[in-house]
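Design request, tokens follow.
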């Protein structure tokens, strides 16, 4: 059975939905592309910045989206941090959405260090290498933890790991536990997978209405991220790459040396036992569970989530 990971956790919804409210009009928005030289080629990383990086009064926040294979769109509620005077940098990781697509690259091209190199390139481009925070959601939190363990970035001040497994096997175990509580027709459709794409998505919709995003109807920005993978003529290169096969960071978490906030939702696929190692093994880490949320508390309890993160970053 193909167990859906972070990039595959929500069913497609009606295009009639509206986008969520963005920060106040006083917050400037800038977007564009950054050249990313890698292995003799130059690719393009799409970015979107809320707030003023040039005249900042607070440390900027870099948001790492989930997947591997999603886009930044569904994390846009974090732009609310700009109303707390934090410039917020979003970007689409290479191979995804508005950044360079590379469907012909071999499997070995897609690895964690590729995404860490792209991150380093982005940080240097914006000139924030001496001071920044990271909020990483799902795969983004996993990627952030790898960044610290592998590279010990001197400029990283504070880290938020949101709804992230500490080992891929725990994510798989949790998903199967939760799925087992659903009707047999749902379990059969998930087991069949993309052999019956419509049946598969309908089944996932039932599961993730409880454990993925409990907001109804599902937000448009979340749909946008998914359409890049599952829409007409979608590019699923990164989603299908074996980047996280056998991945486990639990034995290295003691090497994370920055103040860390760990977040999950009460109904999250990233249940407590899936995320607990971050809180227990990162020195001094704090753990917060959002009681009315699943995998996307920044949608489900948006105001409380933003306030919690802003207070942690400003502590």
């Amino acid at each position: 059975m193909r167990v859906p990971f972070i990039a595959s956790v929500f069913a497609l919804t009606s295009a009639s939905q509206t986008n969520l409210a963005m920060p106040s009009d006083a917050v400037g928005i800038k977007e564009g592309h950054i050249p990313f030289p890698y292995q003799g080629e130059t690719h393009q990383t799409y970015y979107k910045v809320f707030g003023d990086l040039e005249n900042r009064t607070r440390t900027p926040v870099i948001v790492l989206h989930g997947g591997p294979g999603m886009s930044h769109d569904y994390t846009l509620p974090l732009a609310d941090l700009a109303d707390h005077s934090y410039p917020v940098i979003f970007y689409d990781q290479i191979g995804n959405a508005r950044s360079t697509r590379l469907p012909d690259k071999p499997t070995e091209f897609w690895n964690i260090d590729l995404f860490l190199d792209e991150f380093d390139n982005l940080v240097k481009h914006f000139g924030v290498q001496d001071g920044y925070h990271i909020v990483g959601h799902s795969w983004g939190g996993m990627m952030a933890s790898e960044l610290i363990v592998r590279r010990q970035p001197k400029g990283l001040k504070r880290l938020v790991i949101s709804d992230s497994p500490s080992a891929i096997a725990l994510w798989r175990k949790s998903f199967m536990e939760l799925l087992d509580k659903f009707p047999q027709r749902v379990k059969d459709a998930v087991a069949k997978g993309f052999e019956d794409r419509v049946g598969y998505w309908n089944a996932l919709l039932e599961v993730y209405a409880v454990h993925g995003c409990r907001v109804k109807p599902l937000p448009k920005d979340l749909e946008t991220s998914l359409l890049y993978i599952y829409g007409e003529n979608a590019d699923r290169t990164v989603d299908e790459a074996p980047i996280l096969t056998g991945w486990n960071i639990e034995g290295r978490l003691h090497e994370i040396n920055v103040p860390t906030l760990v977040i999950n939702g009460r109904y999250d696929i990233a249940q407590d036992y899936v995320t607990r190692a971050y809180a227990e093994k990162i020195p001094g880490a704090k753990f917060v569970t959002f009681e009315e949320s699943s995998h996307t508390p920044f949608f489900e309890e948006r105001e409380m989530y933003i306030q919690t993160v802003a207070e942690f970053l400003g502590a």
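Comment from the thread starter after seeing the answer: thanks! The CA atoms of residues 27 and 51 lie 5 Å apart.
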